[in-house]
Amino acid sequence: MDAKHENEKMDITPAPTRGSESPEPIKGEQEVFQITEDGVDFRTVTWPRAAIVFLKILFATGVLSVPPAMHTLGAAGGALVLIAVGCVNCYVGKIQGDFRNKHPSCHSIADMIGIVGGPIVRELFGGLYIIAWVLCSGSGINGSGVAFNALSEHGACTVWFNFVSMIIVATMASVRTFQNIGWLGWVGFISIYSAVFILVVAVTQVDRPAAAPKEGPIDLDYVTWGVAPTFAAGMVATTTIFVSSAGTSAFIPVIAEMRRPSEFNKALYLCMFFVTASYLTFASVIYAWCGVYITAPALGSAGGTIKKVCYGVGLLGLLISGAFYCHVAAKYLFVRILRNSKHLQSNSLVHWATWLTCTFGLASLAFLLAQAIPIFNYLIAITGSFCFAPLALMVPAWIWMWDHSEYKRGTIVQKLIYGAHILLMAIGALIFVGGTYGTIKAIVDAYANGTIGGAFSCADNSGTVLGSGGGH
To answer: CA-to-CA distance for 401 and 381, rounded, in angstroms?
Structure first.
């Protein structure tokens, strides 16, 4: 390796000002992964590749759950919520990136909260982090099972389709570095984006939505503003939109594998702008043409033929989404087990055995959870409220206040900024409590009225209509 290339590869030092895009790193803290030519070199991700990984993490199963939430909140209300949470999730992503670049020893949100709250809090949030991404992986497995059902016209039990999806997800998740799995990200992103785009065009061309009555006049029940939804229904809808772009905690381990972590914000801004704009456009069009008759997932909303086309095009994207989420959870557990060990970056038996146990073990857990909550939107909503409200809102607000404690005694403007972060924590707590309550209530009601066929049921829930969310 020539000296010029080596110096370029080793250039990882952030800019030296606090509060800038790349705060000065704390002296004595080392990167989790070292650039090496002996063993596995994890530090190979460029910022454009990081942006693709971020896009695939966010633009995945979440986009299929946003349109049904629009009916509960109304088209205008849902659009405003979507834009607001997109901006908030972008900001908290920046908080996490700045904090991580100041503390380069952090590999995850759990490491960050460990600096602020101590080892016990670190382990608690580490467990929550694994649960969050295992549930997300379960949504990918669930969506893939629905796709197999649609393509085969329910040719086998749904549980078997989900099991096959789990094996594929675990296998793809076993690609060890984000640089290499980033190639899957390109394929997966194009796959799911194309599928949703086909759906958006298709719903404007069909006579009526697939879930609508086959004969007679229909009322889409299109509303601009939500008509006084119940607290539970409103929280489920808000949480569903929130979680669609709340996966910023998964960006932190990607920074640890970036060639130049100081370029993180470039990837973050590009990703969040594209995702928010796409969600707003796609969800608004689908809701405008389907109204209350939106299926969950949304790819089944335009009829049987289009449903097969969409799932055929999007199947690989759904599988890769599950693989990305499984990879994120497995990478945290893997690093947690082998950190400061020679096996972390070696090609030893211990390295491989630990890694494959993490990927296949967590994929199996995701499969079990997907069978317990077989309706797609509810799985997304419970993930958002119980897991991502603390991880994506409360924790970033906490670490910002810890890092800017002098704002409490600063100027009026600084005090207001500090107070805004306290409000951010309060909003996270509201979504955590209210969203979890609302989703659990919705799941219980769905079991009671037969919407869900039961855990490990062969029933196909792909045509379930969740547009109203019980909100009117």
So the answer is: 28
- Six-digit token string for 375: 């309706």
- Please give the share of the chain, as a percent, with pLDDT higher than 90: 40
**Residue 448: CB atoms within 10 Å:** 9
Residue 6: band (very low, low, confident or very high) from pLDDT cuts 50, 70, 90: very low
Q: Which two tokens stand for residue 88?
A: 């908030």
Q: Where are the alpha helices (DSSP H) in 339-435?
A: 349-372, 376-383, 389, 395-403, 412-430
Torsion from C-alpha of 400, 404, 407, 408, nearest 10 degrees: 80
Phi, psi (deg, nearest 5) at residue 54? -65, -45
The two structure tokens encoding residue 9: 């590869």
3-state SS, residue 466:
coil
* Token pair recorded at residue 40: 């596995």
Closest CA to 59 of 247, 239, 199: 247
Q: Which two tokens stand for residue 156?
A: 């086998």
Which residues, other chains included, contact 437 with Cβ-Cβ below 8 Å and sequence gap of 6+? 232, 235
- Classify the C-alpha dihedral 8-10-16-17 as positive or negative: positive
User: DSSP letter string over 328-354?
Assistant: HHHHHHHHHHHTTSTTSSS--HHHHHH
CATH topology assigned to domain 45-448: Amino acid/polyamine transporter I (1.20.1740)
Two structure tokens written together for 7: 């110096």
CA distance 62 to 88: 17
- Could you report how far apart the first and last alpha carbons of the chain are, in Å? 66
Integer Cα distance of 342 and 356 in angstroms:
17
* Mean pLDDT calculated for residue range 21-40: 64
The closest alpha carbon to 165, from 138, 184, 132, belongs to: 138
Question: In 367-405, which positions are buried (b, 16+ CB within 10 angstroms) versus exposed (e)?
Answer: bebbbebbbbbbbbbbbbbbbbbbbbbbbbbbbbbebbe
Residue 147 has pLDDT above 70, yes or no: yes
Please give the average per-residue pLDDT across 258-275, as a whole number: 93
**pLDDT for 26:** 66
User: Judging by beta carbons within 10 Å of its beta carbon (0-12, 13-18, 19+), is residue 433 exposed, middle or buried?
Assistant: middle
- Residue 146 pLDDT: 84
How many residues can be counted in the chain?
A: 472
d(CA 12, CA 26): 14
Could you tell me the pLDDT band of residue 357, with boundaries at 50, 70 and 90? very high
- pLDDT of residue 148 exceeding 70, the answer is yes
DSSP 118: -
Cα–Cα distance for residue pair 446/453, rounded to 1 Å: 9
Strand-pairing partners, residue 45, are 258
Residue 292 is given by DSSP the state T
pTM tops 0.85? no
What is the per-residue pLDDT for 167? 96
